[in-house]
Amino acid sequence: MALQQGPAATAVHDTIAAIAREAAYDRSVGDSAWSDFWNAVARLLQKIAAFFRGSAAGRHVTEVVVALIVAGIIIHFIISAIAARNSDAPAATGAAGTRAADAWSEAERLAAAGAFTDAAHALLAALLAGFARRGEVRLHSSKTAGDYARELARKGSPARTAFQQFRRRYDAVIFGSGSCTAGDYAELLRDATPMLSRGAAS
Fold it and tell me: How does DSSP assign 146-177, residue by residue?
């Protein structure tokens, strides 16, 4: 079920999208670079085939060379993926932690201004960013709070029970009455604070 529409009401989706855009999640390679690489491989294979043309032994040599090239490419990608994951993980963790702190601060600011519905959205965004920083969920803007609750349960997160309580109250407020009162927000904040504090300490 989608969140209410409006600039501030999309805080959860915006936070998730911002985290997903961090460099640690970017594994794209330029089309031109790929094209140049494969063109070079094709030229090399053509030269080898031309050198051994008409020779039965040459055909076997060509097959071995092709197999070695393919194996080398596979090994290269495996090593690169491992190195990228190891080097980027701290950056992703720091970015998600910053997003969680920013969302919590935004929730406090919005609540102080009396915008309790928007503050509730920001509070959920802060929780999700904290879970992502600890590797307890994978963020995606299409997921609902219920999806994240089930993901926390599958992974045996210590926050699964507390988040389930927060999620039920959040859904009842946002999708039930459609707006969050000061009292509703106070209860959501009471549910969320132990999880947010745990995130800040970890």
Answer: HHHHHHHHHTT-TTHHHHHHHHHHHHIIIIII
Report the predicted TM-score, pTM, of the whole model to 2 decimal places: 0.53
* For residue 189, pLDDT beyond 90: yes
Q: What is the residue extent of each domain of the chain?
A: 9-21+29-201
C-alpha to C-alpha distance for 39 and 6, rounded to whole angstroms: 48
**Contact between residue 4 and residue 174 where contact means Cβ atoms under 8 Å apart:** yes
Report in angstroms the alpha-carbon separations of 169 from 30, 100, 108, 158. Answer: 45, 20, 18, 19
Distance between CA atoms of residues 9 and 13, nearest Å: 9
Contact 123, 187 (CB under 8 A): no
Kindly state the average pLDDT of the residues 118-132.
Answer: 92
Per-residue pLDDT averaged across 1-23, rounded? 49
3-state secondary structure of 127: helix
